[in-house]
Amino acid sequence: SFRKGRTLCDYNMKIKYSFT
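-> structure tokens emitted (20 positions)
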């Protein structure tokens, strides 16, 4: 659970950075 949550956060950050 914890690992999945962290991965999701990382993925979201990556997408946001890509869009920036």
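Helices lie at 2-19.
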